[in-house]
Amino acid sequence: DTLDVDLGQRSYPIHIGTGLLSRPELLTSIGRRPMRLVTDAHVAEHYLTPVRELLSLDDEQILVLPAGETTKSMATVDQVMDWLLASRLPRDGMLVALGGGVIGDLVGFCAAIYQRGVDFVQIPTTLLAQVDSSVGGKTGVNHARGKNMIGAFHQPRLVLADTGTLATLPQREKLAGIAEVIKYGMLGDAAFFAWLERNMSALLALDDEAVRYAVYRSCEMKAEIVALDERESVDGGAGPRALLNLGHTFAHAVETYTHYTEWLHGEAVAVGLCMAADLSARLGWLAGRDADRCIALVASTGLPTRPPQGMRVDDFRTLMSLDKKVASGKLRLILLRSLGDAVVSADFDSQALDATLRHFGA
Ligand code: NAD
Ligand code: ZN
């Protein structure tokens, strides 16, 4: 299946399905040119051989980096720049990112700045990367003072999401991606949410059809939102793209509390989705029954529905105020008016937020 991210001159296709890594015509459709591929050690172990063949690459055209979030750093950018310059990748050359969100964000950023910008292709191999990070053009690396603090918007020329690669994904990483899939249902499509309720066990078992549909529908929603608000600049950052942050303010508090180590991003998002649903119901917007469905769906996957042991109401208050968006200094949250209908809100009843924090916090 194929869908398009509609961005005028910067439009690009997303191919989704199994066996894509053995279809060279998908890649050569954007022209044959000098290529360099970057991946990480875990992904290389499973998929470097087929992809090297697919692109007919030599060893010198491949860079294998250590796996893990620490690879997403300026030090690695420097290393990649050195490698690209030494091997003289020309300006009309192309970078290929083979891996999860870490490799995708890093390589996308390298492509944005190498000789003021070269093309790149995303071959996402985690569920999170297939439904979220490989689409939309946000690229970047971390800094000691903050996650994703250095970056650029740079859209890929093509996304190749081979859902067959998810077979080797560790269980926790798979669930982390499922949290983002549930997010799409909650924020934009009640029918997709209901589909997830019916098909969650097939999805967890990585049934081909179920995975393909879940990735397709998620990408479709993200593509639609990105086309409306490419740089998250509409309405001063409170436009369509902000809706993708449903549950994320709570999630960032959890991630910061656990120092970005014990919890995966998607695990924190799972809790954040539950808290956003709870708050939306307390405000009288979302039907209580639908909030319960959100929490039950998250719980049915084995993802956490509660914050880490010992995380207190005051921890949330402090950490969430760090997330305040610059405008007016008021906390801005993404909330649900109903299932499948999210809004950005800065003027909700703060007593309802307190009640949610007391309900979830220690
Ligand atoms: P990741 O890239 O670290 O991958 C998770 C782990 O799975 C790694 O150890 C990796 O080596 C391994 N792996 C990857 N594919 C595999 C496969 N098919 N089989 C076996 N192992 C495999 O993490 P992630 O969750 O994919 O991405 C997280 C990153 O994405 C974060 O840095 C986050 O900031 C970023 N992100 C970016 C955006 C965006 O819009 N750009 C959106 C969401 C998240
Ligand atoms: Zn996320």
From TrEMBL:
Keywords tagged on the record: Amino-acid biosynthesis, Aromatic amino acid biosynthesis, Cobalt, Cytoplasm, Lyase, Metal-binding, NAD, Nucleotide-binding, Zinc
User: Which GO terms of type biological process are on file?
Assistant: amino acid biosynthetic process; aromatic amino acid family biosynthetic process; chorismate biosynthetic process
This protein's pathway: Metabolic intermediate biosynthesis; chorismate biosynthesis; chorismate from D-erythrose 4-phosphate and phosphoenolpyruvate: step 2/7
Enzyme nomenclature, EC number: 4.2.3.4
Which of the seven top EC classes does this enzyme belong to? lyase
Which cofactors are named for this entry? NAD(+); Co(2+); Zn(2+)
List the catalytic activities from the record.
Answer: 7-phospho-2-dehydro-3-deoxy-D-arabino-heptonate = 3-dehydroquinate + phosphate
Instruction: Quote the cofactor binding remark.
Output: Binds 1 divalent metal cation per subunit. Can use either Co(2+) or Zn(2+).
Q: Where does NAD(+) bind?
A: G101, V102, I103, G104, D105, T125, T126, K138, K147, T165, L166, A167, T168
Under Gene Ontology molecular function, one entry of this record is: 3-dehydroquinate synthase activity
- Report the protein's function: Catalyzes the conversion of 3-deoxy-D-arabino-heptulosonate 7-phosphate (DAHP) to dehydroquinate (DHQ).
Q: Which family does it belong to?
A: Belongs to the sugar phosphate cyclases superfamily. Dehydroquinate synthase family.
Descriptive protein name: 3-dehydroquinate synthase
Organism name: Solimonas marina
